[in-house]
Amino acid sequence: MTSPISPTPAAADGAAQQPFDRHPGPPVRVDVWSDVACPWCYIGKRRLETAIAAFDGEVSVEYHAFELSPDTPEDYAGSTTEYLSQRKGMPADTVEEMLAHVTRLAADEGLAYDFDAVKHRRTLKAHQLVAFAKARGRQAEVKERLLQAYFEQGRDVADMDVLAEVGAEAGLDPAQVREALESDALLQDVVADIEQARRLGIQGVPFFVVDQKYGISGAQTPETFAQVFDQVLAERAEVAS
């Protein structure tokens, strides 16, 4: 689903955006609100990447924080089925069917979800790691590794050791990562993302804002992204003519 949306502020640091090079020209900007604990966000990320790979133009992507479940216990020990059954009031068999469906869709995008291994944690620290990486030009790498750690590897993305390891895997200094996360130095950046989402009326993720103008809600198909990219280029050409 796409719709016009109020413009989002320009990035203060150009290194925060991850370019995908094509022919010269202003890139089409995509701002993505997502959560590390959101299975549709990883699927949506892959579909966006598929659209970008096929697009005859340049696209820059910047990720923004969104917490789906800020009240998740720090030490939740139950299974994914138990977690969703308790939170959504759904029968366990219905949850199992839903998880199987999402797993199949993820597999279609080359992702190997393992819901049996997922550790449900609050993702606030993980978002701070993404913010730390953004300032150092490694946001895309960290975002990918966090999603992989959560959905495919069953790692605890609230654990400081795990987050330092993920940062190192993405080319960051693990000691600097640990220092930043322990001091909550990036907490205000994360809060600002979440508040901006609220101002834009974003209530669920993934949510994509294309060229600061068009909102795409949910893990839409690559064709949907491609249509919006083409529309942006057509509008630019019309303005330039």
What count of domains describes the coordinates?
A: 1
Biggest sheet, open or closed, and with what strands and sense?
6 strands, mixed
What is the beta-strand fraction? 5-15%
Order of helices and strands: EEEHEHHHHHHHEEH
Number of strand elements: 6
Structural class: alpha+beta
Give the CATH superfamily: Glutaredoxin
CATH level-two architecture: 3-Layer(aba) Sandwich
Unreliable sequence segments: 6-24
- Spatial arrangement of strands, main beta sheet: 1-6-5-3-4-2
| General shape | globular
CATH class reads Alpha Beta
Cα-atom Rg, whole angstroms? Answer: 18 Å
CATH topology, which one? Answer: Glutaredoxin
- What is the helix fraction of residues, given as a range? 40-55%
Our count of helices gives 9
Give an overview of the whole structure.
The longest helix is centred in the last third of the chain and has 19 residues, at 222-240. This protein has a single domain (2-43, 53-76, 119-202, 212-240), classed as Glutaredoxin. The radius of gyration is 18 Å and the shape is globular. Helices cover 49% and strands 12% of the residues. Helix 1 packs across helix 9 (222-240), helix 2 crosses helix 3 (92-108) and helix 5 (139-151) packs across helix 6. The chain starts with a strand and ends with a helix. Residues 6-24 have low confidence and may be disordered. It has a 6-stranded mixed beta sheet. The protein is of the alpha+beta class and 241 residues long. The chain has 9 helices and 6 strands; from the N terminus they run E-E-E-H-E-H-H-H-H-H-H-H-E-E-H. A hairpin with a 3-residue loop joins strand 5 (207-210) and strand 6 (214-217).
